[in-house]
Amino acid sequence: MSDMLEVWKEYWVSYADAFAQPLQSNGLVSRFVTNANVTGSYAEAWIRSTARIMLGNKFRISTGAVIRPTDKIYDLGRVPQCDLIVWDPSELPGLFECGEFALVPVAAVRAVIEVKRTLSSKDQLLRQLQERREHIPTCPLLGVVVSHSAPLLDCDCTPNWLKGRGSKPGMTRLLDDKNKPDTDGVMAFIYFLAQVAGHTTPW
Fold first, then answer.
1. Beta bridge partners of 102
2. Burial class for 192, CB neighbours closer than 10 Å (0-12, 13-18, 19+)
3. Is 203 a domain residue?
4. Residue 187 domain-assigned?
5. C-alpha angle 172-177-182 in degrees, rounded to nearest 5
6. Is residue 51 domain-resident?
7. Distance (Å, whole) CA 113 – CA 192
8. What confidence tens digit (pLDDT) does each residue in 155-169 have?
9. Considering only CA atoms, which of 157, 167, 168 is closest in space to residue 190?
């Protein structure tokens, strides 16, 4: 039995390594440019591309903002920018949709992902996610950090890890600070997208 568990563990480690391999090339980008805004843009584009591959037939993937009927009452200047919005245009169409940008009605939103290249403080991302939670109380939220020195997932990495969290947003990292894939972190990101797509059973 322990041999079989080792085989499974080795398989998922290899799977996460292969999945994150394009993201590891972000390290090569720094041979040409070290501006964190540029390298962070590549990482964000890769995460959007991955979400589009997994969800694109069912949902749209945009960057922009989630809009609500009450925004004008509370202050239009406080509507937050969202890195990645997963939404269903069959519920309500977006506004000013152009390329990857859209203003998305809250009723159409299915998930929001905030992306950070690195993280100086876990509390910093948690505050940002909590602000998103106040603005969008009903949809799944995930903070994805491309590279961080310590794991960020605060629960067991299972295919249904998102269930049972209530309103508490999740966080995960994809690579450690040595550019090595974090198997649990990568799988948590994949499982998050799978659950947003409606998959509820392990595969």
1. 64
2. buried
3. no
4. yes
5. 40
6. yes
7. 10
8. 999 998 988 777 788
9. 157
